[in-house]
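Narrative progress, year one. The postdoctoral researcher (J.K.) led the effort to move from monomer predictions toward full complexes, under supervision of the PI. The following entry was the first complex the group processed end to end, covering 744 residues in total.
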Amino acid sequence: MATLIKNKRIAPDSWQLLKPAAEGGLPDVPVTGDWLVPLAIWSEQRTQLSQRSGRNGVWLENTEDPRLLALDFDKLALIAVRFPKFTDGRGYSIARLLRRLGWKGELRAVGDVLRDQLFYMTRCGFDAFALREDQDAQAALTAFSDFSAPYQPAIDDGVRLGTVRAESKTAINTLSPW
Amino acid sequence: MYRYDDIDQHIVAERVAQFRDQTRRFLAGQLLEDDFKPLRLQNGLYVQKHAPMLRVAVPYGMLSSAQVRMFAHIARKYDRGYGHFSTRQNIQFNWPKLAEVPDILADLAKVEMHAIQTSGNCIRNITTDHLAGVSPDEIVNPLVWTEVLRQWSTFHPEFAFLPRKFKIAVSGATEDRAAIQLHDIGLQAARNTQGEVGFKVYVGGGMGRTPVIGKVIREFLPWQHVLTYLEAVLRVYNRYGRRDNLYKARIKILVKERTMAVYRDEVDAEWASLVDGPGTLTRDVVDGIAARFTSPAYRALPKDDSELKTYLDADGAFARWHGRNVHAHKVPGYAAVTLSLKRPGVPPGDVTDVQLEAIAELVDRYSFGELRVTHEQNVVLPDVEQRELHALWREAKALGLATPNIGLITNIIACPGGDFCSLANAVSIPVALAIDERFQNLDYVHDIGELDLNISGCMNSCGHHHIGHIGILGVDKNGEEWYQISIGGAQGNNASLGKVIGPSFARADVPDVVEKLIEHYLEHRDSPEERFIDVVQRIGIEPFKRHVYGDSDKKQAHRARQLATT
Ligand code: HEM
Ligand code: SF4
């Protein structure tokens, strides 16, 4: 099992990942327990699933449109975005879009999730990470503090470019940007 | 010159620590090769033929003398005594050891430098006009804007793993000297009728195996919106750019496949959610960044220096250098000077530690301690008093930095090619040296006039062969090195892509072919003012082709010879 980091701590994970059946069909979702299902299953069985006793979550492929979930936010306890390879950066944009659409709940990165990307992922809106199996979760916790002051605005803070900047003027300023 | 504040300094220090830890984990076997590779690339570290190659960022091509001295130190201590200025205004070191790279980065941080995002599929170092801020044809000074973009793109959390690398260039002058139409995004600073600053935005330009001239996506983007608009451009690219094929992954292919109209609509739809949001620039922010630039303490001088006139009249060699390597300045009594790094027997762009020290010295004495790197692999002293030009020339000449060849055929752009690069089909540097050797008669070279000759060792086009008036491309034929020659490419406002003149040539024949092209040009020009490129545009490539390959008999003989050797 991949170790889960949530809100910058190692956390227990109650969620199970439902994979499409091998023949391509959609397996049944158990009535109890917290299940994370593919978007296709959710779209198909949204009504039945909402009546389960366990909690519902959806995982998105990075090619899927996050807007398809926007009307269902109140029915979900978790949204995950899968990284097929850590070098495939589409998931970062998906996360930002989900936050912009108003998703306030847990946003989890799953798949090829590595320590050295946690800082960026956090700034794009992820707050939970199911690390790839070989990752040292304890060591990974230090990645959140790789940088103390980002340059540009993102999701996580009210940073504005250059807010903390001032001082110095010289005689003839040929450098006016205006 | 932009000076770091505490935040900038802190960020580069943290980057050094982060990379030191990543390198340590890699060397200890805790970080897999495949997981480390994108991380080291985002720190400018390639693994090349002989050793790692470290590309150091020179944001918008600006350097202080202290930084130049640090390059000399790095070349001496960690390398083999030299560095290589690249066509993207950066400097590369060809022989560092992986384990020492964190130390090099720590040394760089001491002089406000780094190697952040000089490689990898992220937003690369922002480039601009090497005469930014000093050229009389400037509409808007682009320097502060390039720094705004540098800060915005540095460690941008969303755009570190794009489908492919992403290059942005900015020009603020009427003449584009930054090849903005050959970048993923080109920004041309402009003013609207109210005199307010904004940008004409080009997108989808680039060289490589599918060269494309960028197209205008927005005619005038008010400055407040530049970051949110770029965010929209990049987000659409990040989501939909192709990731299935390395050669189709640049934004130019996305724009081509969707058409500009469709792509523009998608960007506008995304931008609608961002415009006036937290990424919007305010005057305070821009002024705050502008205030961190030091500006030269120019003296009040007469427009034309009388002493200079005397020297120009008296000294032909000086006048020749002045004609090619000295550029007009917007402050009266000043000039910008290109020190040519192109001279017989030396690979284009290479500088030794001794030369770097000497350049730093000149920069301190003649140009307020500031230097620029050009995309033609030379360096510029941007702020020289006219009355000191003669003294500067004498010193530069003694150092071998005064070849009077800016804009001329011997100012060759060449990539590292097969001598250093593992992607190469063929060598570039020896070809550049052979052509240079052929054109050693200065009178002849000056008579030929303006001519850009660019060489790349493979289709990736690091040597800009597509936009050379004469472009030379190394190709591989059954394991042998051949060279394809094109003519009619151009950079600048009327950027165009060269056309191949015919079957490729063996290395030894390349200087002859270049000479033939020149001969034909000299025969056909109307006047010495008509440049090579003008003649190609006027009469087309056919006559050149015939002159090079001869009549059809000779052409067949050439083919036969080629077939026999391949
Ligand atoms: C020796 C190590 C180098 C390697 C492995 C390398 C690799 C590449 C590759 C793979 C591309 C094509 C990218 C694409 O089309 O998507 C490229 C393009 C380019 N490289 Fe290099 N390069 C090297 C050195 C250089 C140097 C020394 C320069 C500057 C002199 C340079 C400047 C450029 C430029 C200007 C482009 C064209 C960008 C465009 O397609 O618009 N590269 N390089
Ligand atoms: S053009 Fe090709 S050979 Fe030259 S440096 Fe680039 S990748 Fe290497």
